[in-house]
């Protein structure tokens, strides 16, 4: 997480002010439940809310840090500072709880906050993709496999394909959000030895979480591993879209380009450059987010009821993964939204390969006309290879190949070289992706 | 995937006989749909089933391999061999389809077959965990955080914790199975240019898959990335359970042991050894399965409508990840099922630390009695540190500490040192995990 | 490691016949040293060599496997089978040694054997790169940054860049080979309690290894982690070269192509296709080899003097990583060797962008002529952007820009558009890479 | 890189003030070389040094940031700010260079600075390990394989083993430092088209780097991949040592403990706790550093002469990996230095298992006395298993086993149970690690 790749709302989730605020809410809600159970005085719970329900200012945070430097324990430092405000009833705070009750439940809240921002980001990406898909539904362009011209598709289909992928991303993130949205207020080893399970139920409800079925001082880390794994998968989808744009912007292809602002400089040395730097950047950010997946998985196998080795990992990848992916998704939405599509180059590229892209249709027509598949393949390939070698366009060559014309007459051959044939089912696919309405 | 860590049923999924059989089913079902559409003769479809609906023997596979060595294309080799059996109507097979329609749909079938075996494996792990959890529901043992004695738990709670974790594993795998269970019969770039979408719908239905909303010659690889990521998370849960057993079997702990068969040798050099080799092995296998996660994610960003770089990765990690995890889960179920629990050592370890594990309860009692939290902590800690240094047991020391006895009398202190206090909520937790019935 | 991506010599290193042969050599050399020390009879050592110095046939291997199935310990099984041949003196074999003395020293031998094959592979890649570099030393082609035309380079420089990179790969592999080439014959916890250090020194020397300074039953795994990390870096270099070829073969670029054999089929559906399938395959194989790096690193932190969790990892990644990289390097050498370079397309691409590639040189000439850098940038960029938009070639546009011509006259401008300017230092670079001789 | 896990000197390397200072030095040294070549006036080079050779204050950095926000190009922003100070001769700065000449050479300097700090850190770890190794050279303690008691070692041997490992770490880091210590001043695509190679040679020499043989606008990223891979291996060695301490501090083992400061609190809930939190923390930090390895490897395969996808990765992992490892190594040195070793517990643990640890020596003595290896194993194992089951100590049991006493008399048996036997070669090992002097 570096400022260059951070957006304020996501970064704020990981700042001390938010963290301590969540800690306070956990403790205060727990006090309410404890008071209801008669474990602590109702007045104590009320005093906690009254004195403590206020923001954590820079001054308060500095005070907590100072205490922590001395006692070397963050939750104790937090509680000590809170006691300054609450006074005598503070001794009822944190009754029967252990630090991890606060830390892990807080992390659950932070991750759900982060997930909510990421879901908004995905919605923005989806909205941009849908708009561009509908805009270019019938913009016929070359489809490529292996980087080699294959058969025509449409720009709209490209956008639709990514839309479907990011809808899956959304579904996965929603599931991952649910996976981490649990609350543990279960004490030192999760037995509720010194705290009633009702406290956990109350705090969970207040914070929009569900109670963790079995915690062991901590919430089990398979939940977090799954969460960060899903971020890694989403980042990989970001990379796929970024890679598509980078390819389309290559000088020789140039079917689309990232928006290039007036006054922007592409290169300090070469004034002619317009580089796809945003999508190259996204490619790198995807690598970073993926890099956090395995450490999160290594965090699962903690020792016995818990060890704390996961903590340093999460202090880093919690912010880093969510902030970086948030930035990447926001950038991606902008790239899609403002992508410049070059219709003329698209058409020029389509026509560039001398009709090679119709080779399969000729193959099929030959087999329908009674030629064996093997012979048909041979006939089409031998003419196609001549096109690659610059000896003419495919249709003309086929018309002069006696073995071909023995099976298909001129008019039939000409009829096969028809772009419209390839877009007949675009609406079917759009309905699958966007529903019947579009 | 090496024989040492393979089980036959899972390995068979990845063998040529199964692969070619699935290919045949895809082609034959597609012929039915094509015949219904009038694209090919009904007799042709019937001929395909009649001549081709039989196992792929070693002989047939060798023939396909021989053809592939020549044409350097696996699907063409497959179709050529099929044509030997089907004869003339074979030219109607694969009409309008592309190789990936077969390959990707086949992979979907193989991954769902693999997922089904893994789900069975998880069920076996869950059954063993449940049985052992109920058996040891009230076997009180030491809970440890940071490897240090904390407070008592029960062996049953340990098993219950893993049961809850492997239920999550099951849910995640079910979702991941659905993610990869799609069918694509959409042609060279996914436009259905030469094949009606109805064929895809028919084949999908026959094979228990859903049609891929947008394929681009291939099924998008974010689906597979998610699948392998989930296997990585499950492997990490395997590692957690394996690590727990390894710790419990340590010479100094020895609360549980892997079953050691009569006649087994633990070490070629040291005849006295009984090592937790199964769970050490599982720890290593978890690393291996995790190692496949990032390559699967790197497979997502293919170029344009597809490139084939994912293929070599999947040829290796498809079998390797599923076979290894299948072996690991089966081994794990056995370890849990046969785990030897040493009740006496468990009790001895509980009593070993001079009552230190009751420190929190004393702390809370002091605060309830009006001592400030900070003072209470100080009082308990100073006596606890003496216990660490071998100067006596905690209860005796507390009874001689005037500041403590000023707040709590002897009987009260004695009453705090009660194991039963720690197991009051075991049933609550068991109900969360296993439901009301247990 | 699957047959499709295996070559016989590397695969043989990991087969039982080679493994057991190395085990025998370790035991037999150890017997010699033990006999020299007077620990065992000289006749016993002689008997071991006489009866045991022969290949491990399939029959012998099956016998060992059968014993292992019973005793569940591979080294004991091996020793038992050896005893069948050696007879009574067999009881002197393995005196004071532990299984890991055999296993770890064997792995060291296998990894050095593998490294030697990989070094040969690298030499073949280097030879092909050097030949093509010299062949195309002055084949001027477009250099591209960000996928966008930048300034001219030569095809020879591309090859030279990879040559320098693979020379670094060779250096790293040599260092990594030395890192794993150690021998441990130090007993159950590495103290030489029951075996003299002189045995280790003797065996190490006979096998071309160095004695491990401190072993702890096992050779420390940081050595192996470093080895597999280096394989991952080399695989990444393979991917860079593969990616270059894939880009050059794109339909729109088509400056080079993988060799396409007569009779080869690019696509079952589209007879016109010639796809860069070898380099796409290499891209995937690189992902696989990288996937083994982190598991190898996770193997380092074993418990106390050793645990065996590394073993299952190494049984898989030992063969998989070396076999896959061996296959990849051999394939890569072939791709480079037979790469088809399309001179005409290269020249056409160079001329395609209307002289944009000379923009920096104009910029520098303007600053040399007294224009500020900022103004010069602005002047060149505004003309370059017109070229992008299809409004003419850069030289013509500059000649009509009054601000430009105020600083540079027509002849000077024309002189700047000179390809030879960009190749003046090619020889300097070639000398750095290939030495003075070329 | 978060403040919690950062040390100032390493963090400063990555701060703008250091980065811009290096950029200035590169540009100013390049001006000297350009002036020597007569490309720019000597006065211009002198003016650059005179006006620019001063620190980058917060004010200057803010000014650069403001310019960058406008022109969206960091090097141009830097040059523009520099021009403010240098005035008219500033137009001669950066002549013929491209941004990457500055950025990549700067990164090389930063990584060598970072490597130098890490080498110092390693020296501190090595010094602590050596001191403790010599201190505990003959502190006999239990050696454990698989977490199970094996045979005696000494605490000194443990430290010596880590010393040897961190010496390898040092060697690897030195080699990795050399790998990244190259300078590229070669222009837009590395052809020196607009700048003489002599400039690169001069700047390299001034900055302690070597010229990059072939750069392609950028320095090839296999160098950086190797560097970060080595950091990952070192982090794994940190984890091994951390894991050893965590195991030794387990309540049941308690042979050593992290230093626990007076006033420190181990747990907010359980006042008795003294947890190995530093080494648990190091375990987590190791995961983090390893997580950066694969992204660094993914950075290698850039497109053609370069793309910029590596940049965002390096902006994050450059600081994060070096700062985190620096912090970890410093913490590790402290842990080793202050580790509390509990001699009494060590001795108690040694005696705990009823002499089982001498089982191998009895086995060997039996074979020396003419018993077959298989019989000897059986005899020892059947007595050892009784010890595990609490039926007595090994020596007493052996003395009552007729088959044993038939081969070995009482005195011989007693003589085998001798700890000194296991430490005879400690000096040999120490000489291998620390040289003849110790």
TrEMBL record, chains A, B, C, D:
The lineage of its organism: Bacteria, Pseudomonadati, Pseudomonadota, Alphaproteobacteria, Rhodospirillales. One of its GO terms (molecular function) is N6-(1,2-dicarboxyethyl)AMP AMP-lyase (fumarate-forming) activity. This is Adenylosuccinate lyase. InterPro entries: AdenyloSucc_lyase_C, Fumarase/histidase_N, Fumarate_lyase_CS, Fumarate_lyase_fam, Fumarate_lyase_N, L-Aspartase-like, Pur_lyase. Keywords: Lyase, Purine biosynthesis. Belongs to the lyase 1 family. Adenylosuccinate lyase subfamily. It holds the Pfam family ADSL_C. Its EC number is 4.3.2.2. The keyword Lyase applies. One of its GO terms (biological process) is 'de novo' AMP biosynthetic process. It catalyses: (2S)-2-[5-amino-1-(5-phospho-beta-D-ribosyl)imidazole-4-carboxamido]succinate = 5-amino-1-(5-phospho-beta-D-ribosyl)imidazole-4-carboxamide + fumarate; N(6)-(1,2-dicarboxyethyl)-AMP = fumarate + AMP. Pathway: Purine metabolism; AMP biosynthesis via de novo pathway; AMP from IMP: step 2/2; Purine metabolism; IMP biosynthesis via de novo pathway; 5-amino-1-(5-phospho-D-ribosyl)imidazole-4-carboxamide from 5-amino-1-(5-phospho-D-ribosyl)imidazole-4-carboxylate: step 2/2. CDD domains: Adenylsuccinate_lyase_1 (cd01360).
